[in-house]
Amino acid sequence: MDSNPARAEHSRQAQYAAIRSRDARFDGRLFVGVTSTGVYCRPVCRVRTPLMRNCRFFASAALAEADGFRPCLRCRPELAPGVAFVDSSRTLALVAARLLTQAVREGRDVALPAVAERLGVTDRHLRRIFAQAHGVSPLDYLVTQRLLHAKQLLTDTALPVTQIALASGFSSVRRFNAAFAERYRLAPTDLRRARGPEAVEHGDAALVLRLGYRPPYDIDGTLGFLARRALPGVEAVAAGGLRRTLAVTHQGRELAGWVACRFLPERHEVELALAPTLVPALGSVLQRMRQMLDLDADPALVDPALSTLPGAPVPGVRVAGTADGFEAAVRVILGQQVTVAAARTLAARLVAALGTPIATPFAELTRLFPSARQIAEADAETIGRLGIVRQRVRALQALAVEVAAGRIELHAAAPLEATLAALRALPGVGEWTVQLIALRSLGWPDAFAASDIGVLDALAPLIGTRDARAAEAASAAWRPWRAYAVMRLWRQLES
User: Fold this and answer.
1) Mind listing the domains of the chain with CATH numbers?
2) Cis, bond preceding 5 (omega within 30 deg of 0)
3) Which of 338, 440, 454, 475 qualifies as a cystine partner to 342, CB 3.0-4.6 A?
């Protein structure tokens, strides 16, 4: 709490103004607890604005719940954008939060000592820095994430309560019911009875959900980037949205299906539909789509940092990530020293040769991208006959072997430095490849491929040369958001 009364009152006034104006830029970064109702809301909630004297402001849902507030059933805090990484002393705590969130989304139990060991710190140190960064203990954070995930499943799906309890990481239905009653003063079935028309399943989609984001969002730029790289059979980008096939390993089971999403800019949301076959892995799918569309980005932090970039400003630029980290890494390797179009052609041949056929309701979606195991076990000469040079075949298969064995993980919660070091140790993988994998597969906001031809071409008017060292030096001005600078520079050349 701020010890300066005048400054604290000014902060409260600013927070209340954001609530009154329903400012979506603060969504996920500000929550308001209303003492007269015991409920906490997002700033975009459409209910009548509470009196300021009844408001308590929080930086996270976990803090609001730790103070005894329960989530609003109308604005649904579980739909709010998450928190993006920053390059600061909070990074370790943010990585820990991502690991805990990922475990919840995948329905896995998680022990804090194991998280600490993975991050290379003691359990005690992790608890201390986590509390400093997030204001709550790791256990409180974990319980909040489990309950919010369960709340979304209860509201938006027809999954049995027992399955939802296990999918949210609770070891038993009894513990799930007890936690729900303690935090929300509701029984899980009360939410199930309150399911509204938006939760109705329709057509071939098992369910339709909504994912929030903070405006502004450069929808045209993100979809344009993905459209130019869309793989026939795997992806299709249409006006306002995209569709793709997707394979997910969930609790030891291999699941495959499709996802389709479209932007709802007037609501600052993305509507997501997915195949019935992917419903057991719903949490993981939601997390993957958030990363693919960079829905947790905070333009209020990013856009000012990019003000010195050449060209006209692009509000709300996003880093187009991936729904499959291994797939993105393969495509980066195929893009070494060739154009975007050529890399897409090579990837399409790989899909046609090794990708598993899949039936979907969409004529343009017919195959899954090859898995790490499929590429690792494929005959090198077969891959070479697709037009992929020997050095890149070696790099692809070396990467596939490590990913299939679990020694390299390619997702946003993977430990950055250890993962980058493992990638650098692979044959045929240089720094350009490592940085672009960090950008797309790991979702690292400060990734910067200084030697990229597109980056150098777009920066030439600013730095007066096409030298990678000069580009690297100039990029210091855009830390810790250099990945967004790369996307802006690419957009400038491609649009």
Assistant:
1) 5-77 (3.40.10.10), 91-198 (1.10.10.60), 207-296+322-442 (1.10.340.30)
2) no
3) 338
Q: What is the CA 330 to chain-centroid distance, rounded? A: 19
| Residues 103-129 pLDDT 10s | 887 777 778 888 888 777 788 888 988
pLDDT tens sequence across 474-491: 999 999 999 999 999 999
SS3 content of the chain, % helix, strand, coil (to 5): 50, 10, 35
What residue type is assigned to position 210 of the chain?
A: R
Contact between 101 and 142 under an 8 Å Cβ cutoff? The reply is no
Q: Which of 27, 41, 55, 298 is catalytic?
A: 41
Residue 252 CB coordination number (10 Å): 5
Clarify whether 156 is annotated catalytic.
no
452 labelled catalytic: yes
- What angle do the packed helices 340-354 and 325-334 form, to 10 degrees? 120
The tokens for 9 are 């009152």
Which segments of 17-77 are extended strands (E)? 31-34, 39-41, 55-58, 70-71
**Which of the following is catalytic: 218, 296, 298, 452?**
452
- Cβ-Cβ contacts under 8 Å for 182 (sequence gap 6 or more): none
- Edge to edge, what strands does the sheet with 55-58 contain? 55-58, 31-34, 39-41, 70-71
CB within 8 Å of 262: residues ≥ 6 apart: 240, 241, 270, 271
Q: Where are the beta strands (DSSP E) in 213-321?
A: 235-238, 241-250, 253-264, 269-274
Name the token pair of 269.
């949301």
Tokens of 12: 């409260």
Write b or e for each residue in 306-345: b if 16 or more Cβ atoms lie within 10 A of its Cβ, otherwise e.
Answer: beebeeeebebbbbbbbbbbbbbbbbbbbbbeeeeeebbb
Structure tokens at 230: 């869309």
Give φ, ψ of 74 to 5 degrees.
-95, -55
